TrEMBL record:
Residues 1-181 form the Macro domain. Keywords: Hydrolase. InterPro entries: Macro_dom, Macro_dom-like. It is an enzyme of class 3 (hydrolase). This is O-acetyl-ADP-ribose deacetylase. GO terms for molecular function: O-acetyl-ADP-ribose deacetylase activity.
Length: 184
């Protein structure tokens, strides 16, 4: 399922993000930037040690990455050129600023992509695995931020992909993109 807003293609696919051939894939990391399970583990395993070396350099400079922020590294052996690591919120019932923090993850990834003049990016479903964020609400936030980015129309990205691992998330993203399409 894909939609085009202002020349920006936004699509949802079911795939493994480590195989994406794009300018940057996004990692759902933790504040330590030292790796973990889920998509973070898969990215470091497939990308090799160069990614962790860059993460260590960032830790020396700024001591990790706060929730809602994002940093950029090499993608090592991955087909992508860069990895943008962002730290999603842990779901704690929804009244601990989780929606704002998740929104900021997407916003900061898009800002970094613009700063580096990237034209394509693939997002995983940040926070919806180990961090327990409800999938429908997370999909709504992700699509609304990206839709706004495309509507604003002055970014460098031409292709934005939501790479869903599970069928539940794919169905939710397709639903959100249908809604976005009908509001264009
Ligand atoms: N490609 C695309 N999506 C994937 C892949 C993959 N290869 N593997 C998993 N997912 P999670 P979080 C999906 O748990 O909830 C780590 O330990 C998965 O199905 O990876 O943000 C970090 O170090 C889910 O929909 O990230 C943190 O400590 C989505 O990716 C913590 O987990 C996110 O699930 C972050 O938790």
């Amino acid at each position: 399922m894909k939609i085009v807003i202002n020349g920006v293609t936004i699509e949802a696919v079911q795939a493994d993000i480590t195989r994406e051939q794009v300018d940057a894939i996004v990692n759902a990391a933790n504040s330590s930037l030292l790796g973990g399970g889920g998509v973070d583990g898969a990215i470091h395993r497939a990308g090799g040690p160069a990614i962790l070396e860059d993460c260590y350099r960032i830790r020396e400079r700024q001591g990790g990455c706060p929730t809602g922020e994002a940093v950029i590294t090499t993608a090592g052996n991955l087909p992508a050129r860069h990895v943008i690591h962002t730290v999603g919120p842990v779901w704690n019932g929804g009244d601990q600023l989780e929606p704002d923090l998740l929104r900021h993850c997407y916003i900061h990834c898009l800002q970094l992509a613009d700063e580096h003049k990237l034209t394509s990016i693939s997002f995983p479903n940040i926070s919806t695995g180990i961090y327990g964020y409800p999938k429908p609400e997370a999909a709504e936030i992700a699509v609304s931020v990206v839709q706004q980015y495309a509507e604003t129309g002055n970014g460098s990205l031409e292709q934005i992909r939501f790479v869903c691992f599970d069928g539940d998330n794919l169905a939710l993203y397709e639903q959100q993109l249908e809604q976005a399409k009908s509001s264009i």
